[in-house]
Each structure stands twice: as C-alpha cells, then as structure tokens.
Design goal:
single chain; alpha+beta; four-stranded antiparallel beta sheet; 4 strands; 30% strand
Length: 87
C-alpha cells in the first residue's frame, strides 16, 4: 500500500522533474478514493494518482481545458465542504 511518505516522495520527484502542482481532481474514477492531482509542465498536463488497488501510481495525460475545469470544480467543492464543516 502506498503511504504518505511515498506520496511526498512522488510529489518531490515531480517538482524536481519540473512539474508544477495545479490542484486536486475529485471524482477521478481510476484513483484510490476517487482523488487525484493535476500537474503541468510546459504545455503538457497530467493527472497523477494512486490506482484503485492502493499499490501503484498512474499518470494520465489530460487536456488543458479539462484539467483547469476539473481543478476549479474540485476546489469549489472542497471550499463548500470546509465552510459547512466550520458552521
């Protein structure tokens, strides 16, 4: 099972390789707990996550417009959840 240390190492390696973290994607079907991350490098966008087995990681290419839209939708959903939790 991939743990938090592994995730931190993956993120560090992505940044070392020049990828910029853009945000989360919720409801990503291939990902464990339906949660994945979006990274950008030059004009390339990828979704990075841990697969449903919890053992392997995956990288899927994604179109710029789709990536930006999905991250925005996810951030709005997270914000709403945080506001409800604080009431």
């Amino acid at each position: 099972m991939v743990d938090e240390t592994d995730i931190n190492k993956i993120d560090e390696q992505m940044q070392k390789d020049g990828w910029i973290f853009l945000g989360p994607i919720l409801h990503y079907e291939k990902a464990l707990k339906d949660q994945a991350l979006v990274y950008k490098k030059s004009d390339e966008y990828i979704v990075l996550g841990i697969d449903k087995t919890g053992v392997n990681t995956f990288k899927d290419h994604i179109e710029k417009n789709t990536a930006e839209k999905r991250v925005k939708e996810s951030m709005i959903e997270i914000s709403k959840h945080m506001l409800r939790s604080s009431l």
